[in-house]
Amino acid sequence: MAATGDEAAAMDSISKAPTAHSAALNPVGSSSSQAEGPEDAAESLVSTPKKPSTNSDGGVETAEEAVEPAEPDINELCTDMFEKMALFLQGELTGTCEDYRLLENMNKLTSLKYMEMKDISINISRNLQDLNNKYASLQPYLDQINQIEEQVSTLEQAAYKLDAYSKKLEARFKKLEKR
């Protein structure tokens, strides 16, 4: 059966009403909204925020209550924060402990090196003392050597004088012989 007159106009306005309302709310997608079915138009009405409407009673505007996004559970956030903070602090403390272990090992190695150096210096000191004792025991012989050297140099001087005197004597003897 075909609708005539007023009935056709009413049916026409009912079928176009959701798409017209959707086109008014979403002007960019108005051409695609006309192709959508009534369920899609209803979804677009629900998902878009409603504008305040004016009431014809006294010019009073009514607005819908602002809906805040759902807050995550504060306990979960605190637990997550404390877990991450514990992990961070654990890492920091682990790093600090490793630094102290390294420092302790370095101190032990340094202590060992100093003990080795102490042993070496004790050996050097002992050897130096032995050399000093040996030098002290050789000192009388060194003094005798010095005395002998002085006597040799005195004897050498005497030998030079004797040689010079013998040359003079020889020259005198030759002179006397020639006469």
The run of helices and strands is HHHEEH
Strand order of the largest sheet: 1-2
Task: Decide which structural class fits the backbone.
Answer: mainly alpha
Give me the number of helical elements. 4
- Dominant shape: rod-shaped
Low-confidence region ranges: 17-52
- Helicity range of the residues? over 70%
Largest sheet: 2 strands, antiparallel
| Oligomeric composition of the shown chains | single chain
Number of strands: 2
- What average pLDDT do the residues reach? 78
Beta content comes to under 5%
| CA-CA gap between termini | 195 Å
Radius of gyration: 62 Å
Provide a descriptive summary of the structure in words.
The protein is an all-alpha fold and 179 residues long. The protein is built from four helices and two strands, in the order αααββα. It has helices at 6-25, 30-35, 38-47, 74-178, and strands at residues 53-54, 61-62. Strands 1-2 form a two-stranded antiparallel sheet. Helix 1 (6-25) packs across helix 3. The longest helix is centred in the last third of the chain and has 105 residues, at 74-178. It is rod-shaped and about 195 Å long. The N and C termini lie far apart (195 Å). Residues 17-52 have low confidence and may be disordered.
